[in-house]
């Protein structure tokens, strides 16, 4: 039977790591991931509300003497890391990374992920690909039997976006999926612009029976820069729920 140990309860301590806010599963997952960090590591720092907890907890360790170098996956994480005094570098300055810790919007079978709900998918995928290991942290509601309930973010260039949108819809259909493709907008109704100056199309599919086929189809569309399907990247997923911490590995889903 593959490994899927409920780590928190198994230890029988009631708390896994100091400084954990018991009421917040995202923070508990982040605290557990901190146990994978060792002195001297070069770390990819993810984006989003769960990764934010991780950076906060990491900063506490740094102030207590931990020596790490962080590579932020977004401007948001960059400013958080700077404000908390976490040493940072660009990916090119840091070189290959030891570990990348990031959140996810959905975790499916084989640790296939949907990411990009916050629009950071492009830098996130580049940083995760540069790391020896990607560890995902999430609350247990993110685990799904099939990806697709969360709209799939696709980062595209702004030139000819209406045409790109039509071609993405065609590609999605050819991959056996169906659903509306919507240009993401910010709170003021303006197109949402990513850190790299691109736009995001959110594809509302409901179900993605074959994530690899969908990824291939979308990648063929001219104008697509990246998509939020992270396949074969996560080596571990730390899920926090009412039952404590569960660590999933690709075969243990
Ligand atoms: O673009 C955003 C990232 O992919 C996030 O990691 C993802 O949306 C999960 O965010 P949260 O931890 O806030 O649920």
List the helices and strands and how they pair.
Blueprint: H1 7-11, H2 25-34, E1 42-45, H3 49-63, E2 69-72, H4 75-84, H5 91-94, E3 99-102, E4 106-107, E5 113-114, H6 121-129, E6 134-139, E7 152-156, H7 161-174, E8 181-183, E9 199-203, H8 211-219, E10 224-227, E11 229-230, E12 234-241, E13 244-248
Ribose-5-phosphate binds at residues 46-51, 102-105, 115-121, 124.
Cα distance spanning the termini: 11 Å
Helix proportion range:
25-40%
Biggest sheet strand line-up: 2-1-3-6-12-13
Number of helices: 8
**What proportion of the residues form beta strands (DSSP E)?**
15-25%
In quaternary terms, these chains amount to: single chain
- Assigned CATH class of the largest domain: Alpha Beta
Subunit structure: Homodimer.
Enzyme class: isomerase
GO molecular function, one term: ribose-5-phosphate isomerase activity
Pfam families: Rib_5-P_isom_A
């Amino acid at each position: 039977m593959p490994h899927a140990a409920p780590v928190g309860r198994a230890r029988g301590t009631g708390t896994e790591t100091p400084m954990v806010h018991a009421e917040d599963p995202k923070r508990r997952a982040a605290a557990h991931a901190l146990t994978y960090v060792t002195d001297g590591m070069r770390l990819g720092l993810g984006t989003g509300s769960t990764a934010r907890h991780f950076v906060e907890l990491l900063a506490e360790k740094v102030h207590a003497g931990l020596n790490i170098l962080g590579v932020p996956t977004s401007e948001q994480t960059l400013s958080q890391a700077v404000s908390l005094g976490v040493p940072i570098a660009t990916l090119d300055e840091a070189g290959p990374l030891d570990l990348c810790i990031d959140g996810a919007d959905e975790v499916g079978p084989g640790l296939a992920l949907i990411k990009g709900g916050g629009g950071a998918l492009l830098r996130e995928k580049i940083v995760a690909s540069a790391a020896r290991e990607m560890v995902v942290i999430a609350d247990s509601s993110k685990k799904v039997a099939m990806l697709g309930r969360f709209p799939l973010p696709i980062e595209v260039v702004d030139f000819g976006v209406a045409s790109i949108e039509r071609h993405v819809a065609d590609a999605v259909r050819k991959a056996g999926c169906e659903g509306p493709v919507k240009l993401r907008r910010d709170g003021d109704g303006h197109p949402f612009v990513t850190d790299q100056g691109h736009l995001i199309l959110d594809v509302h599919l409901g179900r993605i029976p074959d994530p690899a086929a969908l990824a291939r189809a979308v990648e063929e569309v001219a104008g697509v820069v990246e998509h939020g399907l992270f396949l074969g990247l996560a080596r571990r997923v730390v899920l926090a729920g009412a039952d404590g911490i569960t660590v999933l590995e690709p075969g243990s889903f």
